Amino acid sequence: MEGLTFVPANEASPEDLDLIFGRRGEPGNCRCQWFKHSAAEYRAMAPETRAALLREQTDCGHPEASATTGIVAYLDGEPVGWCAVEPRTAYPRLASAKIPWAGRTEDPTDDGVWAATCFVVRSGFRRRGIGRALAQAAVHFARDRGAQALEGYALILAPGKEAIWGELYVGSPRMFADAGFTEVSRPSSRRAVMRIDF
């Protein structure tokens, strides 16, 4: 997409992240903390705490930082999207969940495998292909930082069924496939594990 650029999240400002996530709805409430905490820990946090944790995790506003937890998309200089992408071991809830492990013998503690767990496109910029572009950018981001593979845990919608707002934060199979991922397992009728090996 013309005019679309990506930066590591530490190169974005806290204000840019706030614009992308917004104050209402699931993105503004969750701030990409769902996979990072147990259910009890997550429920005990106020949205303001989750927002502070995301700022700390990304090290946003500090371009000199050596690590971050995702990428930010800009369209003609305007902050429009976010993708959480880092080693799979950074997401404790993934290790304890049935998804993505059903039917697989993979080692959940292999930190060479990264995960793209969350996509947020800012209100007013949706349905323009920004999520798909973020998935492609996540591939480059993970590979350039030494990942051996990158996974996503896509939501499968039944034919003719519309997504409930917020459901597609994990991405769709097609979005990942367009970025070069292939399906490696289908642990449920609503979930596909998508993966690209480097």
Question: What does this 3D model show about the protein?
Answer:
The chain is an alpha+beta fold. The chain has one domain (4-197): Gcn5-related N-acetyltransferase (GNAT) (Aminopeptidase), CATH 3.40.630.30. 29% of the residues lie in helices and 26% in strands. It contains seven helices and seven strands; from the N terminus they run E-H-H-H-H-E-E-H-E-H-E-H-E-E. It has helices at 14-21, 25-30, 39-44, 47-58, 92-96, 130-144, 173-178; strands spanning 4-8, 70-75, 78-87, 113-121, 149-155, 182-188, 191-197. Strands 1-2-3-4-5-7-6 form a seven-stranded mixed β-sheet, with helices on both faces. Strand 2 and strand 3 (78-87) form a beta hairpin. The longest helix has 15 residues, at 130-144. The protein is globular and about 40 Å long. The model has no long low-confidence stretch (mean pLDDT 91).
